[in-house]
Amino acid sequence: MLIDDDNAPPGYVWVCPSEEVDADYRAAMLRHWASLGGDDLRARFWHTPSPTLLSRRAELLDFEHVAISALAPADRPDFFVGMGETGPDLETGGRADLGFSLLADWRGKGLGKPLVRRMFWVAGRRKYTSVRIACLPDNLACKRLCEALGGAYAFTDDRERGQLIFEWPL
């Protein structure tokens, strides 16, 4: 794991996978996802994945296509209180889709904006030209965060339950 405190909130560090993603990083990802409640899992993954599915996702996630940056307390870098993930939008090659989650006990502490800004930076380093975040219409915290970060409300996608799409140029 690579530890970086550049632009991290005070008392926190960014934890990124090294070139060879090790089992410890994948285990920390799984612990984070497994700590999310049912509604949080649905907001993050658009469904409520089983523990087995989360475990397989942590085991098989392809870091050549997906970038993850985790936020952890400086004294516990293996405890991911927040995670952001960005990868290519399969419809357009230049845009990144971004997903993120914060553990319930760590919300309201000013960590959401730095986490999403970090993922914008990661997407830019991967040469994406824009970033998109989709949130469920009832996820008011995500909607407010996207608006506070200047996200342009792009459209509502009504494929299933509907989702609000926000975009930012990089």
Low-confidence stretches: none
Fold-level CATH name: Aminopeptidase
Proportion of residues in helical segments: 25-40%
CATH architecture: 3-Layer(aba) Sandwich
Number of domains: 1
What share of the residues does DSSP label as strand, in percent? 25-35%
| Broad structural category | alpha+beta
Shape verdict: globular
Question: How widely separated are the two ends?
Answer: 27 Å
The pLDDT mean sits at 90
Give the topology string: H per helix, E per strand: EEHHHEEEHEHEE
Number of strands: 8
CATH superfamily: Gcn5-related N-acetyltransferase (GNAT)
Strand order of the largest sheet: 1-2-3-4-5-6-8-7
Radius of gyration: 15 Å
CATH class: Alpha Beta
What profile does the largest beta sheet have? 8 strands, mixed
List keywords for this structure.
170 residues, alpha+beta, 31% helix, 29% strand
Any overview of this molecule?
This protein is of the alpha+beta class. It has a single domain (2-169), classed as Aminopeptidase, CATH 3.40.630. 31% of the residues lie in helices and 29% in strands. It has helices at 23-34, 38-45, 51-60, 112-125, 140-148, and strands at 2-4, 12-16, 67-73, 82-88, 95-102, 130-135, 152-157, 163-169. The chain has an 8-stranded mixed β-sheet, with helices on both faces. Helix 1 runs antiparallel to helix 3 (51-60). The longest helix is centred in the C-terminal third of the chain and has 14 residues, at 112-125. It is globular, with a radius of gyration of 15 Å.
